[in-house]
Amino acid sequence: MQVTAKITKVMEATSGTSAAGKEWKKISFIAETTEEYNNLYCFEVFGEEKVDNFLKFNKVGQLVDIDFNVKTNEWKGKYFTSLQAWKIFKAEDGMTVPPPMEEQSDMPF
Which of the residues 25, 32, 58, 98 could staple to 15 if both were Cys, CB 3.0 to 4.6 A apart? Predict the structure, then answer.
Protein backbone atom coordinates (compact mmCIF):
# COMPACT_ATOMS: atom_id res chain seq x y z
CA MET A 1 0.00 0.00 0.00
CA GLN A 2 1.10 3.58 -0.50
CA VAL A 3 0.06 6.96 0.86
CA THR A 4 1.34 10.50 0.40
CA ALA A 5 1.40 12.44 3.66
CA LYS A 6 3.19 15.11 5.66
CA ILE A 7 5.26 13.98 8.65
CA THR A 8 3.78 15.78 11.66
CA LYS A 9 5.53 14.08 14.59
CA VAL A 10 8.43 11.69 15.19
CA MET A 11 8.46 9.67 18.42
CA GLU A 12 11.53 8.57 20.35
CA ALA A 13 13.27 5.49 18.98
CA THR A 14 12.94 2.39 21.16
CA SER A 15 15.13 -0.71 21.29
CA GLY A 16 15.35 -3.95 23.15
CA THR A 17 16.12 -7.64 22.99
CA SER A 18 13.69 -10.24 21.67
CA ALA A 19 12.89 -13.49 23.47
CA ALA A 20 15.28 -15.16 21.01
CA GLY A 21 18.08 -12.83 22.13
CA LYS A 22 18.19 -10.62 19.02
CA GLU A 23 18.59 -6.85 19.39
CA TRP A 24 15.89 -4.71 17.76
CA LYS A 25 15.19 -1.02 17.22
CA LYS A 26 12.08 0.79 15.99
CA ILE A 27 10.65 4.26 15.66
CA SER A 28 7.09 5.49 15.17
CA PHE A 29 6.01 8.61 13.33
CA ILE A 30 2.73 10.36 12.62
CA ALA A 31 1.81 11.38 9.08
CA GLU A 32 -1.23 13.33 7.93
CA THR A 33 -2.85 13.26 4.48
CA THR A 34 -5.08 15.87 2.89
CA GLU A 35 -8.09 13.52 2.89
CA GLU A 36 -11.18 14.75 4.71
CA TYR A 37 -11.64 11.57 6.78
CA ASN A 38 -9.19 8.99 8.12
CA ASN A 39 -6.25 11.26 7.40
CA LEU A 40 -3.98 10.49 10.37
CA TYR A 41 -1.59 7.51 10.34
CA CYS A 42 0.93 6.18 12.84
CA PHE A 43 3.68 4.24 11.05
CA GLU A 44 6.51 2.11 12.44
CA VAL A 45 9.99 1.75 11.00
CA PHE A 46 11.67 -1.42 12.25
CA GLY A 47 15.38 -2.27 12.17
CA GLU A 48 18.44 -0.30 13.28
CA GLU A 49 19.64 0.65 9.79
CA LYS A 50 16.15 1.69 8.63
CA VAL A 51 15.58 3.76 11.78
CA ASP A 52 18.92 5.52 11.34
CA ASN A 53 18.16 6.26 7.67
CA PHE A 54 14.69 7.52 8.56
CA LEU A 55 16.13 9.96 11.10
CA LYS A 56 18.86 11.05 8.70
CA PHE A 57 16.66 11.80 5.67
CA ASN A 58 13.21 12.76 7.05
CA LYS A 59 12.05 15.78 9.01
CA VAL A 60 8.79 17.00 10.54
CA GLY A 61 6.84 18.99 7.94
CA GLN A 62 8.23 17.05 4.99
CA LEU A 63 5.84 15.65 2.38
CA VAL A 64 6.66 11.99 1.70
CA ASP A 65 5.40 8.95 -0.19
CA ILE A 66 5.21 5.99 2.20
CA ASP A 67 5.03 2.36 1.09
CA PHE A 68 3.80 0.21 3.95
CA ASN A 69 2.31 -3.11 5.00
CA VAL A 70 -0.51 -3.65 7.47
CA LYS A 71 0.57 -6.21 10.06
CA THR A 72 -1.53 -7.82 12.78
CA ASN A 73 -0.10 -9.88 15.65
CA GLU A 74 -1.94 -11.95 18.25
CA TRP A 75 -0.75 -12.09 21.85
CA LYS A 76 -2.71 -13.89 24.59
CA GLY A 77 -5.98 -13.59 22.68
CA LYS A 78 -5.56 -9.90 21.86
CA TYR A 79 -4.81 -8.54 18.41
CA PHE A 80 -2.54 -5.61 17.60
CA THR A 81 -2.33 -3.97 14.20
CA SER A 82 0.54 -1.79 12.98
CA LEU A 83 1.43 0.03 9.78
CA GLN A 84 4.98 -0.96 8.95
CA ALA A 85 6.65 1.50 6.60
CA TRP A 86 9.29 -0.12 4.41
CA LYS A 87 9.98 2.68 1.91
CA ILE A 88 9.81 6.42 2.54
CA PHE A 89 10.87 9.02 0.01
CA LYS A 90 10.25 12.69 -0.75
CA ALA A 91 6.99 13.24 -2.55
CA GLU A 92 6.32 15.46 -5.48
CA ASP A 93 4.29 18.22 -3.89
CA GLY A 94 1.81 18.17 -6.75
CA MET A 95 2.24 21.87 -7.31
CA THR A 96 3.37 22.75 -10.79
CA VAL A 97 4.64 26.09 -11.88
CA PRO A 98 2.87 27.27 -15.01
CA PRO A 99 5.12 27.95 -17.97
CA PRO A 100 5.89 31.62 -18.59
CA MET A 101 3.51 33.37 -20.90
CA GLU A 102 4.95 33.89 -24.34
CA GLU A 103 5.20 37.43 -25.53
CA GLN A 104 2.76 38.13 -28.27
CA SER A 105 3.75 41.08 -30.42
CA ASP A 106 0.47 41.22 -32.34
CA MET A 107 -1.61 42.21 -29.30
CA PRO A 108 -3.04 45.75 -29.60
CA PHE A 109 -2.00 47.86 -26.58
Answer: 25
Nearest-angstrom CA–CA distance, 79 and 81: 7
Q: Which domains does the chain have, with CATH numbers?
A: 2-90 (2.40.50.140)
Yes or no: say if 5 and 60 are a contact pair by the CB < 8 Å rule.
Answer: no
Cα angle for residues 83, 86, 92 (degrees, 5° grid): 100
pLDDT tens-digit map of 46-100: 999 999 999 999 999 999 999 999 999 999 999 999 999 999 999 876 543 334 4
Give me the DSSP letters along 13-25.
Answer: PEEEE-TTS-EEE
Half-sphere exposure of 46 (CA within 13 A, CB side): 12
| CA atoms of 31 and 27, how far apart (whole Å) | 13
